[in-house]
Fold Glucose-6-phosphate isomerase.
Amino acid sequence: MWDSIRAQAERVGDRQILDLFDNDNRAEEFSLRAAGMLFDYSKTQLDEQSRAALIALAQNAGVEQRRAEMFSGGKINETEGRAVLHTALRNLDGGPVMVDGEDVMPGVLDTLKRMTALAEEIRASDVTDVVNIGIGGSDLGPKMAAIALSPYHDGPRCHFVSNVDGADISDVLRRCNPEKTLFIVASKTFTTIETMTNARTAKAWMEDKGVPIEGRFVALSSNAEKAAEWGIPAKKVIGFEDWVGGRYSVWGPIGLSLMIAIGPEAFTAFLRGAQQMDRHFQSAALHQNMPVLLALVGIWHNQGLGHATRTVLPYDNRLSRLPAYLQQLEMESNGKRVSMDGADLTVDSGPVVWGEPGTNGQHAFYQLIHQGTRVVPCEFLVAAEGHEPDLRHHHQLLIANCLAQSEALMRGRSLEEATEIMAAKGLVGPELDRQARHRVFPGNRPSTTLIYPQLTPEVLGKIVALYEHRVFVEGVVLGINSYDQWGVELGKELATTLGPMVSGEQAPDGKDGSTRQLITYVQRYSG
Ligand code: F6P
């Protein structure tokens, strides 16, 4: 099947995207509307034939069967023998979801009730600051969403501490009153070194200030035993099952800080938005399925055309952490070099994902996107409306910039056009040629745009679920397990052995010359 994609990539060659718009219906035919959002992938080199080949690839890879397995609690995380059921967390009024012959929905709804009660209690209390201590999936989701939904905040201030760098927690604690601060220790495993170190520091800070810690620590974890050992009473522990992957966990207890910030009602709207996308993903035919098309466009650019990175460009400042969130979601899920059965992949793994909100990125790295030698497929996101009615002109400018970028990437500027512009400025001869060449934009650079009405909790839920399902489809097509993350283990193990060497308790025996030299430097310059 991959041969057919390679053949399509060759056939398409350097065909001009702009020419494809000679077909007046191109925009409509290469766009998709679902859940009130519009995904426009017409500014790519895809045509009917290449799209059909990609859909056949997805079909052949068993996306439909795998999708059914995921939603019905099949253990599709095969290396860990686990189901993958983050969708159950937002299955608010759906039917039963069975795992090992047992319906998990009563437990899910009960947990949501406990979260709601705790959030209400905290929102009604004198707590002014909530500090979520977690990392990776126990940080990126709630943090990204809390920033995204700031217009809906009506609860205590929320802070997020993730890095083991003491600078992170120090900067947050400096802004908090120990008598009015609540700490949420968010860790699926309750063993992650960064989180446990920060949690201990938070506890010591409270003790140091003479404030009793009772009632001031909440744990969100699948490991109730460890949370209890750490001293958090069961009534302050909200658990979740191992079928919720860390990077897919914002919908359940790990979303508590978000629920406290925006309130249970808005949090439920966030879940409902995701549920709407789930339903679309589950029921729409592959060629009319937004997550499937988003995935196939990504595969076309990465495995088909060989573009190793893609950039996410939200023209929505409150989505400033979406690129970081998607880095974990996509790269931790699909950054694997072997297929489910352990054989080497015969195609590239998922792409490098990066990005920044527009318009900021325009004044930073867009230079390379427009004129660099490598093609970087761009994924624009923009809302039709902002949250600042008094600043509508800002929003209109924002949209104009977003649309201008995708148009400029596609259209480019030829040498003839650049020469004409520079000649009009009075340049002639070799200097005209030299200056004109610097002003050429090759164009024909692909991009997609996801446009939605407004960044509400519901729409954010749809967007995040859209990307989750995209990752799922890409994983199935690549034949890999998107739900484990063995690639993070080696570094963790080595950090454990290096700790005592950095502190000087142990000699750096057995380490390579570079590592020894770096340790020696640290010991010389650290207090
Ligand atoms: O190291 C990677 C990872 O396991 C992520 O997958 C996870 O989201 C993060 O660490 C945090 O893990 P935990 O929630 O168990 O502290």
Summary: The pocket of 6-O-phosphono-beta-D-fructofuranose is lined by residues 135-138, 187-189, 192, 195, 246-247, 332, 485, 488 (CB under 6 Å). The chain has three domains: 3-74+271-484, 86-270, 487-525. Residues 487-525 form a domain with the Phosphoglucose isomerase, C-terminal domain fold (CATH 1.10.1390). The first strand starts at residue 31 and ends at 34.
